[in-house]
Write a structure and sequence with these properties.
The protein is of the alpha+beta class. It contains 10 helices and 8 strands. The termini are far apart.
Amino acid sequence: MGLRHYKFQPNEYVLVMKNGKVVNKGIGLAFFCNTLSTGMSVVPTVSFDTFFAFDDVMTSDFQGINIQGDISYIIRDYEKVAGMIDFSYTSESEYENKKAEAKQVLGKRITNLAKTSASKFVNARDVKAVIHAQEELATFLTQEMTSNEAIKELGLEVVTVSILAVSPSMETKKALEAATREQIMQQQDDAIYKRRNAAIEQERIVKENELNTEIKVAEKEHENQMLRQKNALEEVELETKVTKERADSKAYANEVVLKAMESVDKEILLAILLSGMDSKTLIAKAFNSLAENTDKIGNLNISPDLLETLTSVKACN
């Protein structure tokens, strides 16, 4: 074929070799070479995306999990990768085929390592925890893959790991759906039960408050009744006391009058009674007689109340 001119793209790393030794290398090279004695390897510098789907990863409770995702990576060590993967360049069409094959090989190696890390994550959790840990799984795989020494030995570097879906097997999914429906129904029943209990409790509180109010009203009424009875008893006692005092005063007045009458000559007393003398005059004369006979009577106390009682005594007919 002879001498030819080659010009490569800025996203292509070129290794030019003669007799098995690298004589030129760099990104986006342009040069003339003898195709009979010169060989080339062209390694892409762009990032690659590889899709993965793991459908046989087991959880800690022995349930199968399907994981789908995508890994973005780049070739970091071009010469190392060119030494392990065939990126040889002869023509544009052949190179595209080899690049596609190389990408498939690299993707397979990357996804095998990703499956190992994903299994470690999933094996430590039950199926429900795994299903709800999609973002956590993506973060875990990114950390695991970016620090994986095997990947570095391949001359690669993982950029990001995205998890597109985490789902259980069909049988497990049906079982989870049935359990979830049962749980939802149980929650509904619990909610109804709680509402009924709340209504019963509220009704109990209302009735208890009503009963407490009735008790307090009855107690207050009882207190008022006892107070009225006490007041009535005190009034009766006071009235009885007053009546007794009046009776005692009247009796004492009568006694005084009788004592006074004892000292009056019977003939004079009879004449006075027959003459219809009023009680006040009679009492006055009686006191006059008392005064004349003090040596016979002894001590005699006359109070204002006694005088009032004496003046109210009617003369006997």
